[in-house]
Amino acid sequence: MDRIFLSPPHMSGKEQAYIAEVFESNYIAPLGAFVNRFEEEVKTYTATQHALALSSATAGLHLALRVLGIGQGDIVLASSFTFIGSVSAILYQNATPLFVDSDESWNLSPTLLKEAIATAPIKPKALILTHLYGQLSKLDEIVAICREEGIYLIEDAAESLGASYEGRQSGTIGDMGVYSFNGNKILTTSGGGMLISDNEAWIERAKFLSTQAKEPHLHYEHKEFGYNYRMSNVLAAVGVAQMEVLTQRVQQRREVFEHYQRALSGYEEITFMPELPQSRGNRWLTTLTFDRCDPAKVIAALSEANIESRPLWKPMHLQPLFADAMVVADGTSQRLFAQGICLPSGSAMGLEDVTRVCDVIQGVL
Ligand SMILES: Cc1ncc(COP(=O)(O)O)c(C=O)c1O
């Protein structure tokens, strides 16, 4: 039986033609027409004013913190239930993370966010909010808290490109947002990211820092240090081809989720990640928890059947790296980690593949 992967790349078919155009123009080096075009496509799709194509979403989050002047001695709030890439930039900037647990949405809890702000030793400067597995957080409440407290909101929309909240695209609702185009995301450029904002000055500053902070001289002149974080024109060509099918990819991932939901609807011990009523997730990954069954058994049985699956993210406050970090937690993400798994969710998955996965799960249950 062929292996079923968790979230493999799904090409539109135009990628190689666009890469050929790059080679014909010989703009192989970073920057070129496709980088601009990719940024324009993302701006148009998400209705955002400014976008910067980068080597990764991690780079985008790093630039966001640097642009906001966050550094040593500053506290940055962050979702604890997430991937390390959401929060590495806090460490790059020598700032201090304050992790906040999830609620029944599986995403960050506004109640615990308030508690974290109230009990923090100094006022936090920013919040990095992850929209996990492509599902939106409680943005109304979280935005209101951040505005009231004067805390910058950075949306980690690495997993949620194409998802929306009250009709607005994920990543565009806070002060800045990032998307990831790494190999397992809903769209991929093999590796890449994008920083977006309606604030032109921030994106211009991020652009300057992402290209080695070169002063505007003919020779190379530097007053401060920057990074080599821009996306190459070759990869941007892949991104442009992928953007053409984003709407379709969201629909396909949602259909994969619906197949799973239908096939496993008879099992009371299964709970799928919820979708907030005012949102439309991209269902990047279909995720679920088991009440009475050890998820390790399900993962092992799937692996035996040549099917890839994974536990849910291990919360940051449980990582050895953050053993001494500040956290406001009530056990929600710890429980989700202990009970949940991610199922194969690629947009090219057919109904037969979903059925194959469900047969194995049903066998274990
Ligand atoms: C929630 C989240 N944040 C950040 C990242 C980092 O993205 P990148 O690999 O593009 O740096 C990822 C994925 O890798 C992610 O899933």
Number of E-type strands? 15
For the biggest β-sheet, the strand order reads 1-9-8-5-4-2-3-14
Structural class assignment: alpha/beta
Strand content: 15-25%
Elements, N to C (H/E): HHEHEHEHEHEEEEEHHHEEEHEEHEH
Tally of structural domains: 2
Based on the coordinates given, report the CATH architecture of the largest domain.
3-Layer(aba) Sandwich
Write out the CATH superfamily name of the largest domain: Type I PLP-dependent aspartate aminotransferase-like (Major domain)
Q: Report the mean per-residue pLDDT as an integer.
A: 97
- How many helical stretches? 12
Structure description:
Strand 2, helix 4 and strand 3 (96-100) form a beta-alpha-beta unit. By secondary structure, this protein is of the alpha/beta class. The longest helix has 18 residues, at 246-263. The chain starts with 14 loop residues before the first helix and ends with a helix. The model has no long low-confidence stretch (mean pLDDT 97). Helix 3 crosses helix 7 and helix 9 packs parallel to helix 12. The strands form three sheets. An eight-stranded mixed β-sheet has the order 1-9-8-5-4-2-3-14, with helices on both faces. Strands 10-12-15-13 form a four-stranded antiparallel β-sheet. It has twelve helices and 15 strands. Helix content is 37%, strand content 16%. It folds into two domains: 15-243, Type I PLP-dependent aspartate aminotransferase-like (Major domain) (Aspartate Aminotransferase, domain 2); 246-364, Aspartate Aminotransferase, domain 1, CATH 3.90.1150. Pyridoxal-5'-phosphate binds next to helix 3.
